[in-house]
Amino acid sequence: MSVVEGSSTKLETTTPQNQLQNQVQSEPKLELKSESPTQTTTKISKSKISDNNDVNFPIKLINWSLDGFTYDNQKLTTPILLQEKNGPCPLISLVNTLLLQYNFKNLQFDQGILSQTENQYKGLKNLESLLIKKYHSDKKISLNEILSSIGDLLLMYSEEDTSLNPEIVDQLLTQLPKLHTGLDVNPNLITGDFELNLATTLFHIFGLVFKHGWVIGGAPKQVSDETPKEEEDTSIKKLENIMNELQTFDKIQDYLFLEHPNSSVVTNQELIKSWLDTNCTQLTQQGLTNLNTILESSQFIIFFRNNHFNTLFKKSSMEFYLLVTDSSFTTPKNKSNQIIWQSLNSINGENDLFFTGDFMPVLDINQDLNYGTNQDENFDSDLLLVKQLQEEEDAAIAKRMQDKYEKQHKRHTTNNNKKNEQKDKSQKSTSSSSSTTSDLKPVKKEQPTEKPKKKKLFGIFSR
User: Fold this and answer.
1) How far apart are alpha carbons 152 and 12 in whole angstroms?
2) Phi/psi of residue 400, each to 5°?
3) Alpha helix (H) residue ranges in 213-337
């Protein structure tokens, strides 16, 4: 999805609801516009969600358990949504994270009483019951049913918070179908958070943490291994200073397309491009370290990486697991549904493994899942495909970045040349004045008649 225009306002996971309301009201670029100010919240929840019964999501019942949180080897059973095509990952991750967190809270000594209200408990119980019922009848659920359930749940959460402006809820309800097609996000590459927009606001109302691991904390890729250490340290420090000032992905792209960069700006741009190319998987070691520091053990969050929303579970210190939602892991005859988690231990995925619901590693697929090699050819192909997906996607993203940058840079240069020719013709008798620029600001120029379209180095869109 394309990165939205964002302001410097950031929504932290600990922000109170009244502060959230003030942020939304003061944000002029937040795209949360309702079609009619006279519509009520109830009407929107029932009428503005379009009929999408032709779009369905497979449902899977997973059995899982945690050491120290189960009694008499009791296992939790949670219905989750699976993904068949690119696009609906925000909706899938929202539903799955809510239900996993709900089941885990109910297993605590207070059965979640201290962490959820009675209405929230009933609302999540209804959502869980609906998915279980649909699983046993059709093994799938329509998009329209999911959106309606999420809309009702959103009303339930918002009605218990009197400090939340009802107009914000109305606007969110009209935007719920975007959960199926993708959400705009603008990552902050310093904090691991996102600028305030539809996604951050919606997840926050549901009490869900939303993070990414694309955080600066390493050296830019050097052209030569013989680069002197003093020069390398200077480059690292300079890059960190630039990124600390720009912070968000959107502002970084703006900086990369300054129209009249001086030599210092060009040098800065090369440092940024080098870092982006080196960390094109949208995950860094510094990002993993930050997640380990910020998150508590046994915590579920919505995690963004490689333009994809997913459910991430921190089991213990530096032990992260992603919920496997690929629909290819549901073939009953191959017992592929025993694979529930995939570890997140490395930047490029080479050390990541698959795990069962009990967090037992699946080292030998044929042996651990108890079926012969003559019966699992289809599953083996699916497994290899999914296991290699990370590396292939990393390479694909890097290539798309480069191709898109080259095309946009060429178009950008052509447009500038045309503008300069027109400007020279209209200002033959006018001498141009020179001005200086700082490292992070473009030269001040005349306002064009038409506002040019915003250029982007590469976009972020959900898969």
Assistant:
1) 25
2) -65, -40
3) 229-246, 249-256, 263-278, 285-294
Which residue bears the tokens 């064009």?
448
Is residue 43 located within the same domain as residue 173? yes
Domain count, the chain: 2
Pairing of strands 56-64, 140-142: antiparallel
Question: Do 455 and 257 contact (CB within 8 A), yes or no?
Answer: yes
Structural domain that includes position 117: 1-214+279-412+451-463
Percent of the chain at pLDDT exceeding 70: 61
Handedness of CA 43, 46, 47, 48 (dihedral sign): positive
Are 33 and 174 in the same domain?
yes
- With a CB cutoff of 8 Å and minimum separation 6, the contacts of 85 are none
CA 370, 376, 382 angle in degrees (round to 5)?
Answer: 115
77, 186: one domain? yes
The answer to whether 331 touches 385, Cβ cutoff 8 Å, is: no
Q: What are phi and psi of 151, to 5 degrees?
A: -60, -45
* Together in a domain, 150 and 161: yes
Tell me the average pLDDT across 409-419.
Answer: 68
Whether residues 262 and 124 fall in one domain:
no
284 in the same domain as 271: no
Alpha helices per DSSP H over 138-262 = 143-159, 166-175, 178-181, 198-205, 229-246, 249-256
Q: Which of 278, 294, 310 is at the close of a domain?
A: 278
- Which letter does DSSP use for residue 33 in this model? -
Between 118-137 and 89-106, two packed helices, what is the crossing angle to 10 degrees?
A: 120
Q: pTM of the entire structure? A: 0.72
Q: What mean pLDDT do residues 28-46 have? A: 35
φ/ψ of residue 34, rounded to 5: -80, 150
Q: Quick one: which of 459, 40, 24 has its CA closest to 252?
A: 459
